Structure formats: structure tokens, C-alpha cells
């Protein structure tokens, strides 16, 4: 009886594990759309990783969908910081520290913010 039970459990695991793994490989409709929306945003605006996740959540995507979307696109976050710094300087004047602080506020890491500020000439 024990042997039959063990065989049944093993058979069940063999059948369900591959199916479960395959299900995890397939993105949901929400995840697919979050990827597309993230790419759309980056076509016309610079974002930090956390800023883009927050924007997708604001658009109605769940936290998991937003994170999936941002994690499944190719982005140079340093370049995004440089673009954001450039955008700010088109409309306002900033000290180096002020611009770094603004980029940090926008969700860039310190290294990304410093890269962005140096990329625009500071």
C-alpha cells in the first residue's frame, strides 16, 4: 500500500511539475501589456526604474505586473538618468547637488544620478 502511494505521488509530481513550470514561463496579458506600456513611456520620457514601476501602477497595473514589465525590457538606467537631467536643465537651473538630489527623488540610485549629472556637463 505504501509503495503504491509513493508511486502515485511520484507520478502526480512528474505530471504536474512540468506543467506548472510551463505556466510560469508564460506571461499573463497584464504582464505583456505592462512590458509594452513601459516601452511606450520610455519612447518619449526618461524614468528611473522605480519611477517607471510607480507610473505603471498609477496606470492600473498591479505591482507584480509593473515590476514584470520593467524587468523585461532592456534599459540603460544611467542613460535614463542623463536624459532626465538634461530635461530638467532645459527648463530650470540646478546646482550639481540640487540636480543629483532631484534625480534621487525621482528614484534613481546615487550612482545613476551622479552619472546623469556628469553626462550633462557637471
From TrEMBL:
It comes from Methanospirillum purgamenti. Residues 31-73, 76-119 form the Putative host cell surface-exposed lipoprotein Ltp-like HTH region domain. This is Ltp family lipoprotein. InterPro entries: Ltp-like_HTH (IPR011434), WH-like_DNA-bd_sf (IPR036388). Keywords: Lipoprotein. Pfam families: Lipoprotein_Ltp. The keyword RNA-binding does not apply.
Amino acid at each position: 500500500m505504501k509503495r503504491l502511494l509513493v508511486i502515485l505521488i511520484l507520478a502526480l509530481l512528474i505530471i504536474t511539475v512540468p506543467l506548472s513550470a510551463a505556466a510560469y514561463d508564460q506571461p499573463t496579458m497584464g504582464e505583456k501589456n505592462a512590458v509594452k506600456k513601459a516601452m511606450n513611456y520610455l519612447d518619449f520620457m526618461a524614468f528611473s526604474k522605480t519611477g517607471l514601476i510607480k507610473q505603471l501602477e498609477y496606470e492600473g497595473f498591479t505591482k507584480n505586473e509593473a515590476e514584470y514589465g520593467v524587468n523585461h525590457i532592456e534599459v540603460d538606467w544611467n542613460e535614463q538618468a542623463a536624459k532626465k537631467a538634461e530635461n530638467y536643465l532645459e527648463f530650470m537651473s540646478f546646482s550639481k547637488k540640487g540636480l543629483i538630489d532631484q534625480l534621487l527623488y525621482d528614484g534613481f540610485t546615487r550612482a545613476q544620478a551622479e552619472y546623469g549629472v556628469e553626462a550633462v556637463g557637471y
